[in-house]
C-alpha cells in the first residue's frame, strides 16, 4: 500500500546542507497502528510530512499503491492529501472563525461533494467521535480533548486510507490522552495510522508496530514486513489505448481538488467577521475615493438631468425647421461678409459707393432654395429610427386657421390676430411679413398670433405643464388655454381673444405718437376657471369668405352681415383645459396662449379641399376664379399685343359688367316672363297655352301690377342669394315677390341666372385680358394644402445627441437624392447654443481623475491590509494545504477577502454618498434658483461598486500570490 524507498531529505541553510532523513526505507500494511519514536530532531515530523505530501523528498521514492510519486505534480499531491491522507495535529489546527461543523466539512468542499451529502457525512463523523451535539460551537468554546476529536473527525470525514497523527496527545491531560488513543486504536482496524510521539508508554500500549528513528535513520522496527524493498512496477505488455488514456484522464479530473468561490467567500467572510472593527475601518478608508467620485457623479448627473430637461424643453420650442422655401442664414452672412472684404480694392482718395443692396439681393437669390418636402416627408415617415430620436415631427401647412369669436360687440377675428395692426403698431404688410417668418418670429418673441399647434407628445406636455383645470384636448375641436407660472394671462392675449374690448385700442399707437392723451385699461381682471372653460370660438375655412356673383367669386370679408352668417355656420371650438407651466420646466412647447391639436388643421385642410371654389379652381386651372380672366402663361403671353391689358380683380369686375352682348335676348325674355311681363314675346320653345298657364299660376289678378312689382324687385336683387337658396339678405319686397313665384318660375329664374353667369364668365375669359394672379397664388389664398406635401416640417429632437443623429439622417437623405431634391434646414438651437453637455462632462472627468487618485491610494492600502491578513492567517493556509487545498485555492481565499472588502467599501461609499446628497441639495436650493437635484444614477452606483471590487481585487493579487507560495509545513508551525 505505502512504501518508502531510500528516502532522503536535505535542507539548505545558508552555505551548509542539513540532512534530515538519510535513506529511510519502510513498507506499511493497509491497516495497522504504527508509532514512530525518537528524540527531537531525529526526523520524525519530516518523515510524517513527506508521507502526507506536505513536504517533498530530496531523493528516493514514495510509492502509493504501487505507483511511484517521482513525477507527481502539485495537483497530484493536492488530490493525494485530500483523498488519501487525514492529518491530526498536536495543536489541533482548527480554523478558529469556523464552526465545528464547518471545520469538518471543509475537506469535503474541496472534493466537490454536494452540500446535503457534505452536511450528512460531517455530522456522522462528529457523532463517531462523540461530538454530535456540538455542531455549531466555535473551537474556542471547546476543551482540548473536544478540539482534538474535531480534528480526528475532520481527518476521517473524507474516508482517507492513511491517518497521520503528529503528537495527538501532546497537549492533552492523561485521561483525555487515553480517550484519544482508544479512538485511534479503534480506527486502526480499518485504516493505516502512523503516529509520531514522544510517549513510549502510549506507543507500547496502543500501537501494533513501533519504528524508532535516530539522526534521520531507522534504527529499529518492531514488526517489519517480510520484504522492505518495493517490487519494480511491471510495464504493461502493450501501450494503453485512447480509451484507457481518456478513462485515466477522467479519473484524474474526478479526483482533482478545487475550492469553489462561494466556499472561499464563506471562509473570508467568517474571518472578517472576527475583526469587524478593522474590516469596517478598512472599508471606510476604501470608500473615501468612491464617495468622492459618487458625489461628483451625483452633482454632474443633477446638472445633466437639468440640461437634458432644458434641452428637451428648448428643442420642443426651437426645432429643426425645414420650410418649402429656405435660405441658409449663415451662408448669406458669410457670403456678404466675404463680398464686403473683397470690394475694398480702391484708393482712399475719394468716397466710393458700396453695392450692399445689390449684393444682398443677389446673395439672397443664390442662397434661397425650394425644398421638395413631399418626397422628404415620405422619407421621414419610412424611417424607423426617427421615433426614438424625436419628441414629435410636426408638419405645418399653408392653410390659414381663421378663428372668430361672437359676443355682444359682434364678430371679432381672433386668429390671425390683427390687434397690432388695429393699434397702428404695424402695417398689414409688416404683419404679413411677420406671419411668413413663421417659427423665427416666434423664436425671437415677436409672434403676433395667440393660437399655436400643440406638439403631438402627451408625455412631454405632461412634463412641461400642469393641468390646473379641465383636461387635455382629445378631439380636433378642443383646445387648451395656457397661463403663466403665476396663473396670469398677458393682456395682449385677453384683447386678442376678445376677453377685453380690442376696439378701445384702435389707432392708439398713432394717437400716442401724435401727442394725444390716451388711457389704457390697467385694471387687473380676474377670471374663474369655469369662465375660461366656457369660452367658445368658431373656425371658418377661407373659402367660406367668398361668394359667387356673376360667374366670379367675390371676397365678402367686408360684408358684416355675410361674415356674421359665415361665422355662425363655422365649426365650434371649445376650451376644455387650462395649463400652467411646470415650475421646473425651463421652456415650453406651446408658443401661444391657445394650444390646438394637429387634427384640427387636418380637418380644416379637408374642409378647404372640398369647398366649391377650390374644386372650381382645380377644374379650371387656367382661369382665375376671382376675376374670370385667364392666367397669363408663357404660351399666351406671345399672343398679347399692345392693345391687350392685364387687369386686376376690381377692373375686370367693372369692365365685365359693361361688356354685355346682344346674345342675352333670350335671357331677357325669361327675365320678363319671371317678372310677369305679359307684353314680353313668348320665349322660344314655349307654346301660347303654356305661357298663359304659367302667367295664371302667379296668382296676381292684374298681370300688369305683377310685372311692375317683379321688375322693381329684380332690379336690385342679389341673384347669388337666389342661386344659393338663402333669401335672408333680400328686402321685404323681394322676399314677397319670391314667395309669389311658382316652382316653375323659380327654376326658370335660376336657369336664367346660371346662363347669365356662364355668359359673363365666357366674356371675361375671352376678353383678351389676363389676371395679375396665377394658379398657385390663388390656391394659397384659398388655403389649399395637400397633407402629403407640407409647407414646412418641424423636427423636435429629444436632446442634442439625438439632434446630431437627425442631422446625420438628413445628410444621408441628401446623399441619396439628386441636387434638386436636397434639403436645406434651419437649426436655430445650433445657432444659439454650443454643446454645454461637453463642457460639463469635461469638468466631471477632470474632477473624477483627481478623486480617482484617492481611490487608487485606498486600494493600495487595502492591498497592504490584505497582506497583513495573509500573515495573520498563515496557519490557516497550512491547515487548508494539509487537507488538500491547492495554491490556486489559497489565492482564491484571499481574493475572496479583497472582493468582500471592496464590495463593502463600494456599498458603504454609495450609501454615504446618497445620504450626503440630501444636505447638498438643500445647499444648492438655498444658493441658487436653478432646479438642480444631485442624485446618483443606479447604473453609476453599480459601476462604482464594481470598480471598487475590481481595484481591491487587483490590489490583493500580490498578497494572495504570497499566500499561495507559502510552504505548508512552515505555515503549520506558525502561531
Head-to-tail CA distance between termini = 34 Å
What is the number of helices? 41
**Structural class, from secondary structure content?**
alpha/beta
- Give start-end ranges of low-pLDDT stretches: 227-237, 434-446, 641-667, 698-707
Measured as a percent range, the helix fraction is 40-55%
Main β sheet profile? 8 strands, mixed
- Principal-axes shape call: rod-shaped
Give the radius of gyration.
52 Å
Strand content: 15-25%
- By DSSP, the count of extended strands is 29
Please, what is the average pLDDT? 79
Structure characterization notes:
- The structure is a single chain.
- A hairpin with a 2-residue loop joins strand 15 and strand 16.
- The chain has 41 helices and 29 strands.
- About 6% of the residues have low confidence.
- The chain is of the alpha/beta class and 975 residues long.
- The strands form seven sheets. Strands 15, 16, 17, 18, 19, 20, 23 and 24 form an eight-stranded mixed sheet that branches. The chain has a six-stranded mixed sheet with strand order 6-7-8-3-9-10, sandwiched between helices.
Structural topology:
Elements: E1 2-13, E2 16-28, E3 32-37, H1 44-51, E4 59-64, E5 67-68, H2 74-84, E6 85-89, H3 100-110, H4 115-128, H5 144-156, E7 162-166, H6 174-187, E8 192-196, H7 200-206, E9 209-214, E10 217-221, H8 242-255, H9 261-273, H10 276-317, E11 320-323, E12 325-327, H11 329-343, H12 356-367, E13 368-370, H13 373-381, H14 386-389, E14 390-396, E15 403-407, E16 410-415, H15 419-423, H16 428-437, H17 439-443, E17 451-453, H18 458-464, E18 465-470, E19 478-482, H19 491-497, H20 508-513, H21 529-533, E20 536-539, E21 546-549, E22 552-555, H22 560-568, E23 571-581, E24 594-596, H23 598-609, H24 612-619, E25 630-631, H25 634-637, E26 646-647, H26 649-658, H27 665-675, H28 688-696, H29 703-715, H30 719-724, H31 732-740, H32 743-765, E27 770-771, H33 775-781, E28 792-797, H34 800-816, E29 826-827, H35 828-832, H36 836-872, H37 874-882, H38 887-927, H39 938-955, H40 957-964, H41 968-973
Parallel strand pairs: 3-8, 3-9, 6-7, 7-8, 17-24, 19-23, 25-27, 26-27
Antiparallel strand pairs: 1-2, 1-4, 4-5, 9-10, 11-28, 11-29, 12-13, 14-28, 15-16, 15-20, 18-23, 19-24, 20-23, 21-22
Helix pairs in contact: 3-4, 3-5, 4-5, 9-38, 10-36, 10-38, 10-39, 11-12, 27-32, 36-38, 36-39, 36-40, 38-39, 38-40
Amino acid at each position: 500500500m505505502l512504501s518508502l524507498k531510500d528516502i532522503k531529505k536535505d535542507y539548505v541553510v545558508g552555505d551548509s546542507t542539513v540532512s534530515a532523513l538519510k535513506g529511510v526505507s519502510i513498507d506499511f500494511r493497509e491497516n495497522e497502528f504504527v508509532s514512530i519514536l525518537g528524540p527531537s530532531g531525529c526526523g520524525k515530523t519530516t518523515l510524517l510530512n513527506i508521507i502526507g505530501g506536505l513536504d517533498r523528498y530530496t531523493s528516493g521514492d514514495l510509492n502509493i499503491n504501487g505507483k511511484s510519486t517521482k513525477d507527481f505534480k502539485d495537483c497530484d499531491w493536492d488530490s493525494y492529501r485530500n483523498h488519501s491522507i487525514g492529518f491530526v495535529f498536536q495543536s489541533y489546527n482548527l480554523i478558529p472563525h469556523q464552526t465545528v461543523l464547518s471545520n469538518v466539512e471543509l475537506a469535503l468542499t474541496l472534493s466537490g461533494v454536494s452540500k446535503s451529502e457534505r452536511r450528512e457525512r460531517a455530522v456522522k463523523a462528529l457523532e463517531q467521535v462523540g461530538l454530535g451535539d456540538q455542531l455549531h460551537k466555535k473551537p474556542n468554546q471547546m476543551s482540548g480533548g473536544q478540539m482534538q476529536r474535531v480534528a480526528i473527525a475532520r481527518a476521517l470525514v473524507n474516508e482517507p486510507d492513511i491517518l497521520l497523527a503528529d503528537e495527538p496527545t501532546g497537549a492533552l491531560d492523561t485521561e483525555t490522552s487515553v480517550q484519544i488513543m482508544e479512538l485511534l486504536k479503534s480506527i486502526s482496524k480499518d485504516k493505516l495510522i502512523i503516529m509520531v510521539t514522544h510517549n513510549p508508554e502510549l506507543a507500547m500500549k496502543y500501537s501494533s508496530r513501533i519504528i524508532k528513528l535516530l539522526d534521520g535513520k531507522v534504527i529499529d522496527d518492531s514488526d517489519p514486513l517480510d520484504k522492505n524493498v518495493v517490487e519494480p512496477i511491471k510495464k504493461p505488455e502493450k501501450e494503453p489505448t485512447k480509451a484507457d488514456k481518456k478513462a485515466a484522464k477522467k479519473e484524474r479530473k474526478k479526483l482533482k481538488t478545487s475550492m469553489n468561490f462561494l466556499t472561499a467567500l464563506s471562509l473570508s467572510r467568517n474571518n472578517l467577521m472576527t475583526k469587524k472593527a478593522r474590516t469596517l475601518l478598512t472599508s471606510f478608508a476604501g470608500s473615501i475615493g468612491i464617495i468622492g467620485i459618487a458625489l461628483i457623479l451625483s452633482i454632474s448627473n443633477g446638472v445633466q438631468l437639468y440640461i437634458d430637461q432644458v434641452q428637451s424643453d428648448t428643442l420642443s420650442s426651437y426645432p429643426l425647421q425645414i420650410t418649402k422655401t429656405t435660405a441658409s442664414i449663415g451662408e448669406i452672412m458669410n457670403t456678404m461678409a466675404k463680398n464686403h472684404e473683397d470690394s475694398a480694392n480702391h484708393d482712399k482718395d475719394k468716397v466710393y459707393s458700396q453695392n450692399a443692396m445689390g449684393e444682398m439681393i443677389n446673395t439672397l437669390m443664390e442662397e434661397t432654395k425650394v425644398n421638395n418636402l413631399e418626397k422628404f416627408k415620405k422619407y421621414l415617415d419610412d424611417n424607423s429610427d426617427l421615433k426614438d430620436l424625436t419628441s414629435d415631427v410636426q408638419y405645418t401647412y399653408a392653410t390659414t386657421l381663421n378663428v372668430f369669436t361672437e359676443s355682444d360687440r359682434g364678430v371679432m377675428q381672433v386668429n390671425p390676430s390683427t390687434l397690432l395692426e388695429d393699434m397702428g403698431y404695424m402695417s398689414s404688410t409688416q404683419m404679413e411679413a411677420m406671419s411668413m417668418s413663421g417659427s423665427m418670429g416666434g423664436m425671437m418673441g415677436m409672434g403676433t398670433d395667440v393660437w399655436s399647434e400643440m406638439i403631438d407628445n402627451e408625455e412631454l406636455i405632461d412634463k412641461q405643464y400642469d393641468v390646473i383645470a379641465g383636461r387635455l384636448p382629445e378631439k380636433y375641436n378642443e383646445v387648451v388655454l395656457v397661463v403663466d407660472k403665476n396663473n396670469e394671462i398677458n393682456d395682449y392675449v385677453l384683447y386678442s381673444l376678445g376677453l377685453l374690448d380690442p376696439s378701445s385700442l384702435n389707432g392708439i399707437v398713432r394717437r400716442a405718437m401724435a401727442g394725444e392723451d390716451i388711457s389704457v385699461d390697467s385694471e387687473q381682471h380676474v377670471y374663474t376657471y369655469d369662465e375660461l372653460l366656457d369660452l367658445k370660438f368658431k373656425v371658418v375655412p377661407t373659402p367660406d369668405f367668398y361668394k359667387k356673383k356673376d360667374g366670379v367669386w367675390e371676397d365678402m370679408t367686408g360684408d358684416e352681415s355675410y361674415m356674421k352668417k359665415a361665422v355662425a355656420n363655422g365649426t365650434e371650438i371649445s376650451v376644455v383645459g387650462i395649463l400652467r407651466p411646470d415650475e421646473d420646466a425651463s421652456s415650453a412647447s406651446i408658443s401661444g396662449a391657445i394650444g390646438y391639436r394637429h387634427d384640427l388643421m387636418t380637418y380644416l385642410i379637408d374642409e378647404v379641399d372640398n369647398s366649391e371654389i377650390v374644386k372650381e379652381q382645380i377644374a379650371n386651372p387656367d382661369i382665375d376664379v376671382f376675376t374670370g380672366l385667364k392666367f397669363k402663361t408663357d404660351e399666351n403671353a406671345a399672343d398679347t399685343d399692345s392693345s391687350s391689358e392685364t387687369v386686376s380683380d376690381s377692373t375686370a369686375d367693372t369692365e365685365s359688367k359693361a361688356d354685355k352682348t346682344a346674345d342675352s335676348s333670350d335671357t331677357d325674355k325669361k327675365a320678363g316672363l319671371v317678372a310677369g311681363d305679359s307684353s314680353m314675346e313668348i320665349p322660344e320653345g314655349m307654346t301660347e297655352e303654356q305661357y298663359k298657364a304659367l302667367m295664371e299660376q302667379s296668382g296676381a289678378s292684374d298681370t300688369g301690377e305683377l310685372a311692375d312689382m317683379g321688375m322693381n324687385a329684380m332690379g336690385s336683387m342679389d341673384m347669388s342669394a337666389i342661386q344659393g337658396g338663402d333669401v335672408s339678405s333680400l328686402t321685404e319686397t323681394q322676399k314677397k315677390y319670391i314667395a309669389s313665384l311658382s316652382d316653375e318660375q323659380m327654376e326658370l329664374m335660376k336657369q336664367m341666372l346660371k346662363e347669365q353667369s356662364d355668359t359673363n364668365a365666357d366674356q371675361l375669359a375671352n376678353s383678351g385680358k389676363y389676371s395679375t394672379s396665377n394658379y398657385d397664388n390663388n390656391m394659397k389664398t384659398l388655403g389649399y394644402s395637400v397633407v402629403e406635401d407640407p409647407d414646412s416640417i418641424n423636427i423636435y429632437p429629444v436632446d442634442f445627441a439625438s439632434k446630431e443623429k437627425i442631422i446625420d439622417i438628413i445628410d444621408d437623405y441628401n446623399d441619396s437624392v439628386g441636387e434638386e431634391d436636397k434639403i436645406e434646414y434651419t437649426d436655430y438651437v445650433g445657432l444659439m447654443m454650443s454643446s454645454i453637455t461637453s463642457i460639463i462632462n469635461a469638468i466631471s472627468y477632470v474632477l473624477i481623475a483627481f478623486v480617482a487618485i484617492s481611490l487608487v491610494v485606498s486600494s493600495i492600502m487595502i492591498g497592504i491590509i490584505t497582506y497583513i491578513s495573509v500573515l495573520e492567517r498563515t496557519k490557516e493556509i497550512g491547515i487548508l494545504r494539509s487537507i488538500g487545498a491547492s495554491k490556486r485555492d489559497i489565492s482564491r481565499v484571499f481574493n475572496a477577502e479583497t472582493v468582500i472588502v471592496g464590495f463593502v467599501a463600494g456599498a458603504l461609499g454609495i450609501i454615504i454618498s446618497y445620504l450626503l446628497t440630501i444636505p447638498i441639495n438643500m445647499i444648492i436650493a438655498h444658493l441658487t434658483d436653478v432646479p438642480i437635484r444631485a442624485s446618483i444614477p443606479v447604473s453609476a452606483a453599480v459601476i462604482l461598486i464594481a470598480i471598487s471590487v475590481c481595484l481591491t481585487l487587483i490590489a490583493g493579487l500580490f498578497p494572495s500570490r504570497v499566500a499561495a507560495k507559502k510552504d505548508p509545513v512552515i505555515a503549520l508551525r506558525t502561531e
